[in-house]
Amino acid sequence: MDTGCRKELQDFDGGFDRGHLVSSETLDWDAETNSETFLLSNMAPQLAGFNRAIWRGLENRERNWSSQLGRLYVQTGPVFSDSHLVGKNRVLVASHFFKIIYDPDRRKATSFLIPHQNLKSAALNNYLVSIDEIERATGLDFFRDE
């Protein structure tokens, strides 16, 4: 690991997990693919009480749905409204995280917008939102051609 990368990893210290956007358990069909989930491009600073609780629960739900339904398209990422910076390298910490899970065979989607807080006992269904709401929060346009 080069020195620059080591410095960036230090920015995740101080109460933040290296939160995966795509979990390593989701991409586990071979060692190379799985190892790529540990790249910083797939990580964001996440509070431990968020990453290890509600976010993990959502990742588990995503995998269960995939096992039941087959192919799913998943869009996930941070939202940076009311964000703040941490560490020497001033890494931006998200105010929210989103996940859109789309079933192309049934042409149905389920989407979540979750505040980046320690939400150990919160119910995921409290954070169900429309894709339009995520688009407003992020400025992105999802599934334009669907």
**Major β-sheet, in short?**
4 strands, antiparallel
Helix content: 25-40%
Rg (CA only)? 16 Å
What's the β-strand tally? Answer: 8
> Strand order, biggest sheet?
3-6-7-8
Which percent range describes the beta-strand content? 25-35%
State the order of secondary-structure elements, H for helix, E for strand: HEHEHEEEEEEH
**Distance from first to last alpha carbon:** 41 Å
Low-pLDDT parts are 1-5
* 3D shape: globular
Number of helices: 4
Supply the helix-strand structural class. alpha+beta
Mean pLDDT equals 86
Name some characteristics of this structure.
alpha+beta; 4-stranded antiparallel β-sheet; 4 helices; 28% strand; globular; disordered N terminus
Written description of the protein model:
This protein is of the alpha+beta class and 146 residues long. It contains four helices and eight strands. The chain has helices at residues 3-10, 31-36, 48-69, 131-138; strands spanning 16-20, 43-47, 73-79, 84-86, 91-93, 96-103, 108-115, 128-129. The strands form three sheets. Strands 3-6-7-8 form a four-stranded antiparallel β-sheet. The longest helix is centred in the middle third of the chain and has 22 residues, at 48-69. It starts with a helix and ends in an 8-residue tail after the last helix. The model is unreliable at 1-5 (pLDDT under 50).
